[in-house]
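Render DUF4194 domain-containing protein in 3D.
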Amino acid sequence: MNHDPAVRLIARLMAMRYLPREDAEIRRLLVDGSFRDEVEQRLAGCGMRLLAQPFAAHVGVALIRSTESAVFEQNDTWQASNIGLPKDAVALLVILWALIILPKRERQLAGEAAQQESQSEMFETVKLTPQAYEASRGIAENILLEDYGKLLGGKARIQFALPQLSRLGFIERRNKTIHEGPLLDLAFDYAEMAPRILQGALADLLKKRGILADAATETH
């Protein structure tokens, strides 16, 4: 048995793909600065980085930018993913992230800002409440098909891609409603992706659904 805590945690993250914040080793990672530094250094040595977003309920790993080309660039073309997802499934993943995660993140950030304002000047940091990891709001599958079917190559393509995304842990499907899976919040970097969506062509489609009305106002 390997008694090196950093090696043990990295092995679990690599094998299981994600771990919940409630996991004992993940809790240590998030509060023990020296332990986190060691884990991140060892991951970097293998071309990997830690995915531990402040509001995400799970922690995972991903490639660092400098190693992405070694994985995704094959035969002079850039692969859509390294997990067998075609381009249209990746496009669907972006839309689901925008529909489910982006509004949740805006609520979380607004709640944190309100919490900061209410804190006494004696405290330098804000302790995130359980509500910070609130469950996201799902989206009905029939609404997704009607609103974004044509954009993604037809309803049949969406119906084919949804089971793939579910098996990979990005979404959960319950009672014909799509909910956030463990990996959806980690799929994209909020700071990088949110501005692209809010200032891009997808924003107009999402605003029509009332998804980004408040988010767009707060971001600009």
